[in-house]
Design brief:
This protein is mainly alpha-helical. The chain has helices at about 5-35, 40-60, 60-80, 80-110, 110-120, 125-155, 160-165, 165-180, 190-205, 210-215, 230-260, 265-295, 305-340, 350-360, 365-380, 385-410, 440, 450-475, 490-510, 515-535, 540-550, and strands at about 410-415, 420-425. Strands 1-2 form a two-stranded antiparallel ribbon.
Length: about 550
């Protein structure tokens, strides 16, 4: 059942297509939130409230189940033991539903103390709105844990598209309630979006259930049986992987804790920038890793040369797209943000604020996407401890760098009248390790400070630390690892030429409508990047151009 490189490319393309559609719907959702909420108190409260219960989904959901459940389940299928595979899937479903249910009840009951602990800088209306939203959202996020189980089953059967496109319905649920109740003033927009999270979660699970029932063909046996051999294996892997993911999620919560100490708007700004930053990671990192994991789980552990070839193919594929995206985010971040978010409550200063944060985040893109595939190699070899240990190091580095920068950069305010677009605030003091004045953290509107930039910088450095450590582990034990699969010099040459073209176009073109501006500059820059990569015989560029020719 092991996949050939061409099948790997097709499977990763299906995953990327599903993720692309779901992330596109996420951009539409965020554009609607930006229109109604801007980066003000409602936006901060919604982002913070979503982050708190999202800890549950990320801890028990897709990443953990993919790494602990798929290897065991896929091996049982490979051995022709479909009945045993169904029993394992049923036991995992039962245990997962019970655990998620208990945690949801605890989350709703203790919403206030959780919010106070995790957003110590929130007060007044911002705190109260966040507590209410946490109570509303927890059940909806709990349902998404079951969606992750569906994804694990379908991926193991090489059904890659549906589970990754299903989150479109999650975003549709949010949009439906936001426009149906929020826009008509039946509910405050932030509360309407919170109710939409619950509706969207139910829709996301419902659309996958029929396909799951078909692939299991009656072999599913829901239970709480922890004594089945396959279940014990899943649980043994589950603990260390939860630890590793837990470190990552604790880091996300720590980001929320420290971001709450920044001026109003920082939490929302980080959220808007992260939606864009995570798009290429999901499209080009997760898609390759997800398509590879079932095959890696059944590979010959001694086939070092074959694994090296697969890694080169996977890393080369993701890096081709990601390096081009990095150039675009760094040079056109403000243009992208303006085209997607720049309307309603989202003004020009907020656009610049988010664009700068996005540009800094993007310096970690190449490392973050590569790490996804290297983690899959280790998970497929039943090594969950190494990714967990590396995650702890990454988090420590990111916080050690990000927190001091955060407090100092929060002394700077966006000012479009200045040559660089920002200046030291009138009451600003640097260097400092203290939060800004409490009044800036209890205001009603975005204070346009740059503190979020510090957390983005720490994240980028941490991503590279993670990649280097994972690469060392995989190279020493399983296969040779080359950054970008050996295509990096060619990709860098193409990226530099594309960057020069973009800079010239920014300088010479007149002001155009936001979307037209982005299409013209980004399109020409992207064309140069792909053209140079094709000339330099980068495999993915050749494949992309050949596919376009066939369609013509």
């Amino acid at each position: 059942m092991s996949d050939t490189p061409s099948e790997m490319r097709r499977h990763s393309s299906l995953v990327a297509a599903g993720i692309g559609l779901s992330r596109l719907s996420g951009l539409v959702r965020d554009a609607a939130l930006a229109f109604f909420l801007g980066a003000n108190v409602g936006a901060d409260a919604f982002r913070a409230a979503l982050r708190i219960p999202n800890f549950l989904q990320n801890l028990l959901g897709e990443g953990v189940l993919s790494a602990s459940f798929i290897p065991t389940y896929a091996r049982l299928l490979e051995e022709g033991r479909e009945e045993d595979a169904g029993r394992v899937a049923g036991a995992v479903l039962g245990l997962l539903a019970m655990l998620a249910g208990v945690l949801v009840l605890l989350g709703v009951a203790f919403a206030r103390p959780l919010t106070i602990v995790l957003t110590p800088g929130f007060a007044g209306d911002r705190l109260e709105l966040t507590v209410t939203l946490v109570r509303i959202m927890f059940p909806g996020i709990g349902v998404l844990v079951i969606s992750a189980w569906c994804l694990g089953v379908l991926n193991s059967h090489r059904r890659f598209f549906l589970s990754y496109v299903a989150p479109v319905l999650w975003n549709v649920g949010i949009l439906a309630v936001l426009f149906g109740l929020g826009a008509t003033a039946v509910l405050e927009p932030a509360l309407a979006a919170g109710a939409g999270v619950v509706l969207g979660g139910l829709l996301q699970v419902a659309v996958q259930v029929p396909s799951v029932r078909r692939v299991l063909r009656g072999s599913l046996r829901p239970s709480l049986d922890i004594h089945l051999p396959g279940v014990r294996q899943v649980l043994r892997a589950f603990g260390p992987i939860v630890l590793g993911r837990g470190v990552v999620q604790v880091a996300a919560l720590l980001d929320l804790v420290v971001a709450s100490l920044l001026a109003v708007g920082a939490v929302a700004v980080l959220g808007y920038a992260q939606t864009l930053y995570l798009l290429p990671i999901a499209l080009f990192g997760m898609s390759v890793a997800a398509a590879e994991l079932p095959s890696l789980s059944t590979r010959d552990p001694e086939a070092r040369e074959a694994l090296t070839s697969r890694l080169d193919t996977g890393l080369g594929r993701s890096s081709f797209f990601v390096l081009g995206t990095t150039v675009g985010f760094v040079l056109l971040g403000g243009h992208i943000v303006r085209a997607i978010y720049g309307r309603g409550e989202f003004d020009a200063a907020t656009t610049m604020q988010v664009g700068i944060v996005l540009g800094v985040y993007s310096f970690g893109l190449l490392a973050a996407t590569g790490s996804r595939l290297l983690q899959s190699v280790l998970y497929a070899s039943d090594d969950a401890r190494t990714p967990a240990t590396v995650a702890i190091v990454r988090v420590a580095v990111a916080l050690a760098i990000g927190v001091p920068l955060m407090f100092n950069l929060d002394q700077f305010v966006v000012d479009l009248a200045e040559p660089f677009g920002f200046r030291l605030a009138d009451d600003g003091v640097v260097p400092t390790l203290r939060p800004v004045d409490e009044g800036l953290r209890d205001a009603a509107t975005n204070q346009l400070r740059l503190g979020a930039l510090g957390l983005a910088a720490g994240s980028a450095v941490g991503a590279w630390i993670e990649y280097v450590l994972l690469r060392r582990s995989v190279r020493g034990r399983f296969a040779d690892v080359r950054l970008a699969g050996g295509t990096l010099p060619r990709l860098l040459a193409a990226g530099v030429l594309a960057a020069l073209v973009i800079l010239v176009l920014i300088r010479v073109l007149p002001d155009l409508p936001a979307v037209v501006d982005l299409i013209v500059i980004g399109g020409l820059g992207g064309g140069v990047y792909v053209g140079v990569c094709w000339t330099l015989r980068v495999p993915e560029a050749r494949s992309l151009v050949d596919a376009a020719r066939r369609r013509r």
